[in-house]
Design a protein that fits this description.
Layout (H helix, E strand, L loop, with lengths): L1 H7 L1 H21 L2 H21 L1 H17 L1 H32 L4 H29 L3 H25 L6 H25 L6 H26 L1 H9 L1 H39 L2 H28 L1 H4 L5 H35 L2 H7 L1 H18 L1 H23 L9 H19 L10 H23 L4 H22 L1
Helix pairs in contact: 1-11, 2-7, 2-11, 3-6, 3-9, 3-11, 4-5, 4-6, 4-9, 4-11, 5-6, 5-8, 6-8, 7-8, 9-15, 9-16, 10-11, 10-16, 11-12, 11-14, 12-14, 12-18, 12-19, 14-15, 14-17, 16-17, 18-19
Length: about 500
């Protein structure tokens, strides 16, 4: 089931890869270090504000969709109409409030304009995301993939064109996002209106949505402080250029993992919710157990590979940020694994049990640890100090989230898969580190592809040999199904 769902989301994943790595590769070349640093601050501010004000609406659409669907067409239409209406209302109210707040900030005019466009774009993104969440919850994978992929690529392309052809500089990518959101909303609105026909805005459900969604917003805010709060400390102690260097290295390492986490989470979350609503806890546990094992099978080797090839992978970045960025990438890769398992695995237990407020509480201690360590370590160890602070906080957060999550939902712990995949990663690392030293003198692209290819083969062979995360069984099942289909076609002809 997981692999079939994942295949449906391949176009979305490809778009994420293009936009994620394209943003890093192109913007670090088009912007100097300081410009990229200011852009990073604007992006961090955008995501933080979106989580604080708007994510609760998106979370409610996803979580209560299956329940509303089970009650009938009218209840589903009302569910969608209520949340679509709330998203428009929140965006309309939020836009002037955010612009007013930016105007009052004691910062220079250029930064005010940058923040105004970045925060303005997130108001439209909310309306776009509500439709996207409904498509995902309904498992309309084809429609979701087309709209999401088109939106991502259009916004990215328009932003790059504006950077090249206008003096907008750091503001340009956010204008691209605004343009893409407007086009996407216009195209998808007739479809959404048809699904909302016959429904009504149910004010009595707003409290239920708030009670569920606001704690998720709080927990995401705290988690985001863990991952991006460092930028503001770095800017304070070291300046915009250092922010650009840190953000470039962080994104190149973490986005590689985040793409995988988002891809898997996108495929599994609707299945887990549907299983919980219709089939009960035992079936949901099985879904989550397979999900956790699959995460480990794909994420651990990706993180290990990033750590092994960080230096040659630096060619992707512009020269203004490259040298410092590659130094932090190995650390960030494993910090990203911990962050991903907090956000995309442990969080599912709180979401399914509807104890989302507890998740927010579990993040308080890690955030405090992160803040204190940033204040202590950045002045002394600079960018590495920020990385070490993040890793320590993630480690505490991961342990706390798993311990507390299992009090509210019997979340499976895929320990066998962890041991198996870790062993396969160790074999991969040994093989790559044992390669002849003269490979390091090759051009970066050739060195990267050689080490990555040999490492991937070593990992895949080891994982298959020991049946890590039941991968050998999965491959065998796929072979059997293909043979069965081939035999069936032969009989029909």
């Amino acid at each position: 089931m997981i692999w079939r769902q994942m295949l449906g989301y391949i176009p979305v994943n490809v778009a994420n890869i293009i936009v994620s790595f394209g943003t890093i590769a192109i913007l670090t070349r088009l912007f100097d270090g300081a410009e990229f640093g200011r852009y990073a601050i604007a992006v961090a501010s955008l995501h933080f504000i979106h989580m604080a004000l708007f994510t609760w609406v998106e979370a409610a659409m996803s979580r209560f969709y299956a329940n509303a669907e089970s009650k009938g067409k009218t209840d589903l239409a009302s569910h969608m109409k209520t949340l679509y209406g709330l998203s428009i209302l929140a965006g309309v109210i939020g836009l002037p409030l955010l612009l007013g707040a930016v105007y009052l900030l004691p910062i220079d005019t250029h930064m005010k304009m940058l923040l105004a466009f970045s925060l303005g774009s997130t108001c439209l993104t909310l309306v776009f995301n509500i439709a996207i969440e409904s498509h995902k919850a309904a498992e309309r994978i084809g429609r979701f993939s087309v709209i999401f992929t088109s939106n991502s690529l259009l916004g990215f392309s328009v932003g790059i064109i504006l950077i090249l052809m206008t003096p907008l500089r750091e503001v340009a990518p956010f204008i691209g996002i605004i343009f893409a959101n407007i086009i996407s909303i216009i195209i998808d609105l007739p479809f959404m209106l048809k699904r909302m026909k016959g429904g009504k805005f149910e004010t009595e459900n707003v409290r239920k949505y708030l009670n569920y969604g606001v704690p998720i917003s709080l927990s995401l805010m705290l988690t985001y402080i863990l991952s991006q709060g460092d930028l503001f400390f770095i800017q304070h102690f070291m300046g915009d250029v250092s922010v650009g260097q840190y953000n470039a290295g962080y994104n190149l390492a973490n986005r590689s993992l985040d793409v995988l986490f988002v891809w898997l989470g996108m495929a599994v979350t609707p299945v887990a919710i549907a299983a919980f609503e219709h089939d009960g806890i035992e079936k949901t546990q099985q879904v989550l157990k397979n999900y956790g094992a699959t995460l480990l099978l794909l994420i651990l080797p990706a993180a290990t590979g990033i750590a092994l090839v960080a230096e040659p992978a630096g060619f992707i970045l512009g020269e203004s940020v490259r040298a410092e960025a590659v130094k932090i990438m190995p650390w960030i890769a494993f910090a990203g694994v911990m962050n991903g398992f907090i956000s995309y695995y442990a969080q599912r237990a709180f979401m399914l049990s509807k104890n989302t407020g507890v998740l927010a509480v579990t993040m308080i201690v890690p955030v405090l640890i992160n803040i204190v360590l940033n204040l202590l370590l950045i002045p002394r160890y600079e960018l590495l100090g920020a990385v070490w602070a993040t890793m320590a906080a993630y480690g505490v957060g991961l342990v706390l989230s798993f311990i507390i999550a299992r009090r509210y939902f019997p979340l499976p712990l895929p320990l066998k898969a962890l041991v198996q995949c870790s062993f396969a990663c160790a074999v991969m690392a040994g093989v790559v580190l044992a390669l002849p030293s003269h490979i390091d003198a090759w051009p970066d692209v050739i060195e990267l592809l050689t080490k990555a290819g040999i490492g991937a083969i070593a990992y895949a062979a080891t994982a298959y040999a020991i049946n890590a995360s039941d991968c050998r069984d999965t491959v065998q099942d796929l072979r059997d199904k293909l043979k069965s289909r081939a035999a069936s076609k032969t009989v029909q002809t």
